[in-house]
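Why does residue order matter? Because the sequence determines the fold. Keep that principle in mind as you read this record.
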Amino acid sequence: MSHVQQDQPRGVPPLALTGERTLPDVPAENYWYRRHLAVYEWIAARVAGLRVADLACGEGYGSAVLARRAAEVVGVDANPEAHEHARLRYKAPNLRFERALVESFAGPSDAIVFLQTIEHVQDPAALLEGFAAAAPVSYVSTPNRLTLAPAGAEKSDNPWHLREYTHGEYRDLLTPCFAGVEIIGLFHARKLRAHELALRLGWDRVHGGLRITKPFYDRFTAAISASDFALRTSAQANLDEALDFIAVCRA
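Structure:
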């Protein structure tokens, strides 16, 4: 089934959901959009007053979030449709978009943001070394293979992912490229955490037996917000159980 963005501003071409990037304004995609948005909002609070490059920015919503706090944001993406959409939809004096390969970005910048994309990259170490040369700090996130892929699988069935990482594998990738690396995990919170607990108690059997699966999840998915996710350090949670890893990498 094809999903296309709804209710776009006049003159802004809607994007279709392909699985390569997440999108706002697609009801069925709201869980993934909010999962990404939670991380963008967390980073935005940490880049206030800085010049930020949001690489592989996709639809552009994350660049717009960063621009609320940063001094200057450039969103970089190679896809022509995503670039045109972002350029037309998100406008602010301190925000601009460039169509380019992320590998070509050389800075200078105060911070690089590169979310949910390193798993798509053929030579991630070379790219990360470029980040370290271009900015003093880079925020790089990726999904946790242990919670995304089936147990024992090398990766999920996402065709866009070349490699997915465990916590240890991700640290091994990042550490040679930067002087300092802190990895933080993203977890379910609030109603998503309650839903996790309900599943453990047999909620799947209940909604299936009552034949309310679709109406329940149509409403539940639409109600998910960024606050239904929480970022936690390794001192606060077991990162092997995280949904995503967010690495704060210092050159």
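The chain has a mean pLDDT of 95.
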